[in-house]
Amino acid sequence: xxxxxxxxxxxxxxxxxxxxxxxxxxxxxxxxxxxxxxxxxxxxxxxxxxxxxxxxxxxxxxxxxxxxxxxxxxxxxxxxxxxxxxxxxxxxxxxxxxxxxxxxxxxxxxxxxxxxxxxxxxxxxxxxxxxxxxxxxxxxxxxxxxxxxxxxxxxxxxxxxxxxxxxxxxxxxxxxxxxxxxxxxxxxxxxxxxxxxxxxxxxxxxxxxxxxxxxxxxxxxxxxxxxxxxxxxxxxxxxxxxxxxxxxxxxxxxxxxxxxxxxxxxxxxxxxxxxxxxxxxxxxxxxxxxxxxxxxxxxxxxxxxxxxxxxxxxxxxxxxxxxxxxxxxxxxxxxxxxxxxxxxxxxxxxxxxxxxxxxxxxxxxxxxxxxxxxxxxxxxxxxxxxxxxxx
Length: 391
Ligand code: ATP
Description:
By secondary structure, this protein is of the alpha+beta class. It is 26% helix and 34% strand. The protein has helices at 3-18, 70-78, 120-130, 135-149, 164-177, 194-210, 222-228, 246-251, 256-261, and strands spanning 31-39, 45-54, 59-63, 85-90, 93-94, 105-109, 182-186, 214-219, 231-236, 239-244, 268-277, 280-285, 288-293, 306-315, 320-323, 332-341, 346-352, 355-361, 368-374, 380-383. The longest helix has 17 residues, at 194-210. The protein is elongated, with a radius of gyration of 25 Å. The two termini are 42 Å apart. Residues 40, 42, 44, 46, 64, 66-72, 220 line the site of adenosine-5'-triphosphate.
């Protein structure tokens, strides 16, 4: 979306969210999408059979690769774009045909979309003025928002005199004073440097805790997803892959896509075969083997333990254990290619058979052969064919 277009949208949004401003609200703000589809006029399918239930006052982070449909989802919720199928409900009421101005939503973009010729104060106050609110009341609201956001001393500055972080705070202030039920944030921090991003992450989380609103936050930064969300919705190709708490998504990824998308450095995924042998299961990967206790596979379909079906195992770099070279324990042999020094840890890139794997360790590792094993409680198993988690 270009800047001009954004400014228009924001102008529009500032005024529409205000309609709700002095209405005594019930404190409900739940959102449901039921089998939603969005196909653009050019035939591009941006969302397919998308269903999600977001509870009152959740902070839901929408993550996924570029072009997966994140912004489309926000635009549908804001009412700026129409679903081509399915239902969108706010507090249980279908809103597909409700105009944006009649939904209690506000959008915050990465480009802030501030009016350059207005002071921070006037940018925050703009929508309230348009709505005809009393000047004194506006003053109270603007100052209250500025105080929460720590920009009281910047209120007379124009956007060009402000830093990126301060501009984003002004944009948040403008959204706050409109008192929406739903805060929709589209990559709001992606223009900021790493330090400011960390600061603003904390500030948005604090804001969320103070306000009685539901937050839907789009990002492709997984640190934001992991640290800010009460739940994360992972999308790929317009399809919801998993919707769960950050911990569940990290520890129990629903499929290979989620496993590799969430976590940095990425989870190692290795083609393998499992074969039940007595009370053990033989895991063969990269032409080497490990024996695992059968109990680990309770509930796993027998066919995956037959030795005839491809299974992808997943192990995060920090869940690989480096063993002493002379170990008696069962182990896998790897050849260290190179390593990166991270200060308190090392990232080691090594060859396991023909595959490159990454190991995160606090040990000093030099080039050469290493004996490793996996923390078996942290192993993930996926169907090689469908990608789904088989446990
Ligand atoms: P990014 O992270 O790059 O912003 P996104 O996940 O927000 O991407 P969307 O902007 O929702 O993705 O786009 C989803 C898909 O729909 C993309 O393939 C995109 O090319 C397509 N798309 C988006 N807007 C339109 C449009 N107005 N007309 C046609 N296709 C569109």
